[in-house]
From TrEMBL:
InterPro entries: KH_dom-like_a/b (IPR015946), OsmC/Ohr_fam (IPR003718), OsmC/Ohrsf (IPR036102), OsmC_Ohr_Peroxiredoxin (IPR052707), Peroxiredoxin_OsmC (IPR019904). One of its GO terms (biological process) is response to oxidative stress. It holds the Pfam family OsmC. One of its GO terms (molecular function) is peroxidase activity. It comes from the Bacteria. This is Peroxiredoxin.
Length: 142
């Protein structure tokens, strides 16, 4: 079992509050708040961090699916777009849209799509999310 952690602090309340989030590893150390989440101010927001987590987890899962199928060389790049929408008096994450571009020597498009689909379902972050998850693939011949 692996346990990782992050800490978030929010000073002030509501729209005027200012937040700070940091990971134990120190890789993430950023400001967040209403303006970074809804107004495009510098800093991060929870949905951006979910998108980063989902993109990186899914890409690694796809890499392992490909390695398990005997492929040894390639490049994968995933963009993840997380949608936050109004839900009654609050908000909810309603969708995580993965777009995978891959170039893998000796692989064909059909097998690429099949293995990426398995990775989408098996990725730990996909299993965590309670929203619609979509996958678009862009296969490039190596």
């Amino acid at each position: 079992m692996t346990v990782n952690s992050a800490t978030a602090r929010y000073e002030g309340l509501g729209k005027t509050g200012k937040g700070h989030v940091a990971t134990k590893s120190g890789v993430l150390d950023a400001a967040y708040g209403f303006t970074t989440r809804f107004e495009g101010a510098p800093g991060t927001n929870p949905e951006e961090m979910i998108a980063a987590a989902h993109a990186s987890c899914f890409t690694m899962a796809t890499s392992f699916q490909l390695a398990g199928a005997g492929f040894t060389d390639g490049t994968l790049e995933t963009t993840c777009a997380v949608t936050l929408e109004k839900d009654g008096d609050g908000f909810k994450v309603s969708k995580s849209a993965l777009t995978l571009t891959g170039r893998v020597a000796g692989l064909d498009k059909a097998q690429f799509e099949e293995l990426a689909g398995i990775a989408k379902k098996g990725c730990p972050i996909s299993k965590l999310l309670n929203c619609e998850i979509t996958l678009e693939t862009n296969f490039q011949s190596a």
